[in-house]
Design a protein that fits this description.
The complex is a heterodimer of chains A (373) and B (296).
Chain A (H helix, E strand, L loop, with lengths): L5 H4 L4 E5 L6 H14 L3 E6 L4 H6 L10 E2 L2 H5 L10 E6 L2 H12 L3 H9 L1 H9 L3 H16 L4 E5 L7 H15 L1 H7 L4 H6 L5 H10 L1 H14 L3 H15 L4 E7 L3 H17 L3 E9 L9 H12 L1 H31 L5 E5 L8 H11 L4
Parallel strand pairs in A: 1-5, 1-6, 2-4, 2-5, 6-7, 7-8
Antiparallel strand pairs in A: 3-4
Helix pairs in contact in A: 2-18, 5-6, 5-8, 6-13, 8-9, 8-14, 9-10, 9-14, 16-17
Chain B lengths: L6 H4 L4 E6 L5 H14 L4 E6 L15 E5 L1 H12 L2 H10 L1 H8 L3 H13 L14 E5 L3 H18 L2 H15 L4 E8 L2 H18 L5 E7 L6 H8 L5 H26 L5 E6 L7 H12 L1
Parallel strand pairs in B: 1-4, 1-5, 2-3, 2-4, 5-6, 6-7
Helix pairs in contact in B: 2-12, 3-4, 3-6, 6-7, 6-8, 7-8, 7-9, 9-11
């Protein structure tokens, strides 16, 4: 068991935090960035859908799809001093905006760009299709990396139901865009051409009958105009993949001891292993520590009766028993994680009472994540 | 204000969507609702959407049928239902429709919604299939759940003419009918799940004209101590058990404040049921009992 995250992240330029939703992943990502900035690095954390108060704490409400500098005075007010050169930048990813930017960068000309941006199918695709949020997250990561503006990037990944989506996003989106479906539709003699060209094949007549033709017109315009972007997309997806596999990139899994997030953590560790991606370690957040005091609730109550009165002492004993049950569950979960994540080091972070969604909360969490404080 | 939807009426719907952020116990609640309806003599099917291959834990409701909806199967059924046999076969074997389905955003959702609709018909369109009184949908997490409900209207609007437009319109009409369709949100008393629940309600009202029928709040910790007691305890933190109890108290108070925010956001128009925290996860039987009690 490790004492802190330092050995997992020292010397890395890209830190990807993965895991299920609802385990404090965004807060952990922000805290990692804060800790690195405190040690003198220029750090940007890219968050996805942060809790309101965390967004407020980091000043994430500003418009635009770019990192903003977190006011050092705000950090200093909570006792976080940045070493010389240290800067904390933060942004919330806007997938739709990122996708639009990508189209703007990759479109061969303005007409082509406008045609895509205005297309109804594109509007649905960029906002809704599974994988587009994941793809835009890594696309933004790549863009920030290539800009050379930051020493370290911390990416808080989308809370996908299936962690696989994130790793496969570049491939999947590319597969979707250039796969057989697209080729069939785009080919001069393909489906779209035949339908639009009033082809007489029975199959297409039937298709028209089943679907209604307007939808197909939209689709065909979309795929035709997207054709000009394919080379750019392909190059970008390859670069993103290379960045994810770079030795200066590391993955951390964030989980809680609850059943479903733990299952996802195990699954994701396996997926990383299969993909040959480095797993730095597993951060187990919100672990209930083994409570001090006697195991027997009656003994707990008896020991407190004189001081608190019988009724209140019994209530304390009941709360203590709850904490013991939770600690037992968490102990089992941690043992299972240690067994099933293929020997990855674990870092346990205790359940911190109260609000961890402000800078003060991040500062307290930092003491648990970094051994040197 | 009195809660608008007593749970007894909840089970009188034809389609019951159960949705919520991942990890809040959605499937358990769906199974429990299915079990309650079975206990009332209904013919029930629990339909799972977007099943994950890696999930080990499957919850089932005794006495109910279970189905996992596969868009590919749903599409083949749809084609068989819509077209004369030889034409359906032709489409299936040409693979062109498969390409189209793979390339069309939202078509999977449409096909899934269509299958759910089919399950809820008095006269099933699938030859020889038995009818159900209630279809409990173990729906995808909130955002995708809403996309599923909206898909038929989106396609009806996009296609304008032809069978998909017609079919989409029929399915959409049932989904929008509050007498036939109800939506239950499952959440925990934490900030992000509460946000998602309130956003779901807003989206549901804007896109579907439906309100939530019930919000189930899972994993609520006991709120044991009064403010006066907490004050007494704060002076005795040298006792390890007291310090532990105060930590538990802080977490319980944080949950109460999120629960309060949830209830304010629902402005008294949506019934809520809270379920106590159980380290092993929610227990369907306990939920059924509590829901039945809430029904009075």
């Amino acid at each position: 068991m490790s004492m802190g995250v330092e050995p997992w992240i020292d010397g890395r330029r890209v830190i990807v935090c993965a895991g299920a939703g609802g385990v404090g992943k965004t807060t952990v990502s922000a805290t990692l960035a804060l800790g690195l900035a405190a040690r003198g690095a220029r750090v940007a954390v890219v968050t996805i859908d942060p809790a309101r108060r965390l967004a407020d704490a980091l000043g994430l409400d500003e418009l635009g799809n770019e990192p903003h500098l977190v006011d050092p005075d705000r950090l200093a007010a909570h006792g976080v001093a940045l070493a010389p050169g240290g800067e904390l930048w933060a942004m919330t990813l806007d997938p739709k905006h990122t996708f639009d930017e990508l189209v703007e960068q990759l479109a061969p000309d303005a007409t082509n760009r406008d045609e895509i941006l205005a297309n109804r199918i594109y509007q649905q695709l960029s906002g809704a299709v599974a994988g587009s949020q994941e793809f835009t997250a890594v696309a933004k990561l790549y863009e920030l990396h290539a800009s050379g503006r930051f020493d370290v990037l911390v990416l808080d990944t989308p809370p996908t139901r299936n962690a696989l989506d994130f790793l496969d996003a570049p491939d999947r989106l590319l597969g979707f865009l250039e796969g057989s479906a697209l080729r069939t539709l785009l080919a001069p003699t393909g489906l779209a051409a035949r339908i639009l060209g009033r082809g007489t094949g029975v199959v297409f007549a039937v298709l028209q009958r089943v679907t209604g033709v307007d939808l197909l017109t939209d689709l065909s315009v979309f795929f035709r105009s997207l054709g000009g972007l394919l080379d750019g997309f392909r190059a970008r997806a390859a670069a993103v993949k290379a960045l994810l596999g770079d030795p200066a990139t590391t993955f951390l899994i964030v989980t809680s001891p609850a059943r479903e997030p733990s299952e996802e953590a195990v699954f994701f560790a396996g997926r990383l292993r299969d993909a040959g991606m480095p797993l730095g370690g597993v951060i187990v957040n919100r672990v209930t520590p083994e409570p001090a005091g006697p195991a027997d609730p009656d003994a707990v109550a008896a020991g407190l009766e004189d001081r608190l009165g019988a009724a209140l002492a019994r209530k304390v004993a009941a709360a203590h028993a709850d904490a013991r049950a939770l600690a037992a569950r968490d102990r089992d979960a941690v043992a299972r994680l240690a067994r099933e994540t293929g020997g990855a080091p674990l870092l346990l972070v205790p359940q911190l009472g109260g609000d961890v969604h402000d800078v003060g909360g991040l500062a307290r969490l930092r003491e648990r994540l970094f051994a040197a404080g | 204000m009195a809660p608008a939807a007593p749970p007894a009426a909840l089970l009188d719907h034809r389609l019951l969507f159960v949705t919520g952020k991942g990890g809040v116990g959605k499937s358990t609640i769906a199974a429990a609702l299915g079990g309650l309806a079975v206990a009332r003599g209904r013919r029930v099917v629990v339909a799972e959407v977007h099943r994950r291959a890696d999930v080990e834990h499957v919850v089932t409701a005794a006495g109910a049928d279970h189905i996992s909806i596969d868009p590919q199967d749903a599409m083949e059924e749809y084609l068989a239902d819509q077209l004369p046999g030889p034409l359906a076969e032709l489409l299936k074997s040409s693979r062109a429709f498969g390409y189209l389905a793979a390339a069309t955003p939202g078509l999977r959702e449409l096909l899934t919604a269509g299958k759910l609709w089919e399950l809820a018909q008095d006269e099933r369109r699938t030859p020889g299939a038995r009818p159900y009184d209630l279809v409990v949908v173990d729906a995808p997490a909130t955002g995708h759940g809403l996309a599923l409900l909206q898909a038929p209207r989106t396609f009806a609007d996009a296609a304008k003419v032809g069978p998909i437009a017609r079919q989409g319109g029929i399915i959409d009409a049932q989904l929008r009918d509050p007498a036939q369709t109800a939506v239950v949100a499952v959440t925990t008393a934490e900030e992000m799940p509460v946000n998602e629940t309130l956003a779901l309600r807003e989206g549901l009202r804007a896109a579907m004209g439906l309100d939530l029928s019930l919000v189930v709040v899972n994993g609520v910790r006991p709120d044991r101590f009064t403010a006066a007691e907490a004050k007494l305890l704060a002076e005795a933190t040298d006792e390890p058990a007291v310090a532990v109890a105060l930590d538990q108290h802080a977490l319980a108070r944080e949950q109460r404040s999120q629960l309060g925010r949830l209830r304010r956001g629902l402005d008294g128009a949506v019934a809520t049921v809270t379920l106590p925290f159980v380290p092993q996860g929610p227990d369907p039987a306990a939920f059924g009992a509590r829901l039945a009690r809430a029904a009075g």
